[in-house]
Amino acid sequence: MSPDEMLAHESTSQAFLDDIIGKLKTRREKDWYNVDVKTVLDKTPILSHETRENGDSLVFLNSSVMYFSPTTGRMQHFPRNLVHCFVDDYRMSEEKSDIVFRGELFSVTPHEEQLCWILECANESNVPQAQASVAKWMSWLNRK
């Protein structure tokens, strides 16, 4: 990597770690991200990331995505060509549901190794944020 690429990589890596560390509850989880996950991602440029309150995260790389779970210790890598996106906008349905919008990023892989990253909105005011995430997924899936 060039010096400029290294700086950009360090910036996005640090942004990811800063974002997830604030959501972790135990020292063990924080150490896992700061040592183990950081080591795995050390030389890999991060395009973007998503985090969950439970400490799970999704990291978008150039041609793949990685899922991290401190609860299970899982670090799973999914090539982009095995990842799909489905969207269900229940606002258009005549059937009533507690969910108004659902986006799902998932992999076509063996059961124990599947990626299943779901965003659900029960409130219409949260739909624009979910749509923005889905738009980011679609942009990543369609990168050349």
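^ that was protein a. below is b, sequence first then the tokens
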Amino acid sequence: MGEATYYLKARFESAEAAQQSLPKIKEFLEQMAKAENDWQTLRGQKDRSVSELFAQLKTKYPNVFELLELAKLFEREGNGDISMNFLAGQLSSPAGDTDWEIWRNGAVIGFHGTVWHYANWEPLVQAIKRLGAQSANYVSDEYLNPYDEL
């Protein structure tokens, strides 16, 4: 499995709004990492249907599945995908990395960590906005060329 470092920065209405959102975001990212670990354990089990496995994860991590809108993804791509590959890159949380970091500076919250390469953090951006950010964006080091900075 390839990995890359992903970075996300979110802007809030005020420093106070960012401070109030910080523990919610940290908890969300930690739950997301646990959901990813459980997904890795469950995927490919042939004794249960994909629907049953997905429902088990959704029941255990309702906030993660709601904020990332994973039920919509399942409807589009999940039926019949016994390995649940449709979740690859969707549950890639920086909190799964032992060296991950989350910080707040005034009205800005940022975090980074090593996750599955080519992870899709667009649903995570939307989730962070649902948790109070006015704007958010991410970048991965797999898209950066250090020579551009010279």
